[in-house]
Amino acid sequence: MTNLGVKQGRRTTPARQLMWDPFESFRSLWGFDPLLRVERPAEAAGRVQMEFSPNFDIVERDDAFVLKADLPGVKDEDLDVTVMGNQLTVSGSRRDEERTEGENYYVYERVHGDFSRTFTLPNQASTDSIEAKLQDGELIINVPKRAEAKPRKIPLGERIRGKLGKE
């Protein structure tokens, strides 16, 4: 009997060494691996994502919430950051480059277009003094916390103990 090989990635494994892998079956049937990565719906369906939708990092610090997004090619005048109630909306557009007739595009993967993302801010956020800046293709939004939401140290001293009746 001929020893058939099965190609897996860059190596070929003899068929007799292969065992059934339920996760590989799931990946081949559904188009994604639920244990290794999260995919966007367009990728899971085997289509290329055709809209520009920036990804955000959101970090909570002692004094503020900080939102960061990479927005290469987006200009200040094409970007809007608005707040209404406790809803923070970042919207804008990334313009497509002009294609010159006669040029041959072999690969055209960068996406362009309009985008909008809305975030619900927590109750601790102070929406009156939000700051946003776009610098070197990175958007940074600083949402300060209300004074009563910031941690503060309570000093222990003679006066406090005296007020509690434990002199």
Q: What are the main properties of this structure?
A:
3 helices, disordered N terminus, 167 residues, mainly beta, 2 domains, four-stranded antiparallel sheet, 32% strand, Immunoglobulin-like, three-stranded antiparallel sheet
Mean pLDDT value: 76
Q: For the CA atoms, what is the radius of gyration?
A: 27 Å
The percent range for helix content is 10-25%
Spatial order of the strands forming the largest sheet: 3-4-9-8
Q: What's the structural blueprint in terms of helices and strands?
A:
Blueprint: E1 5-8, E2 11-14, H1 22-30, H2 41-44, E3 56-60, E4 64-70, E5 79-84, E6 87-94, E7 113-120, E8 131-135, E9 138-144, H3 158-163
Structure write-up:
The protein has 167 residues and is mainly β. It has two domains: 10-44, no CATH class; 56-97 and 106-146, Immunoglobulin-like (Sandwich), CATH 2.60.40. The chain contains three helices and nine strands. β5 (79-84) and β6 (87-94) form a beta hairpin. The longest helix is centred in the N-terminal third of the chain and has 9 residues, at 22-30. The protein starts with a strand and ends with a helix.
Concise overview:
The protein has 167 residues and is mainly beta. The protein contains three helices and nine strands; from the N terminus they run E-E-H-H-E-E-E-E-E-E-E-H.
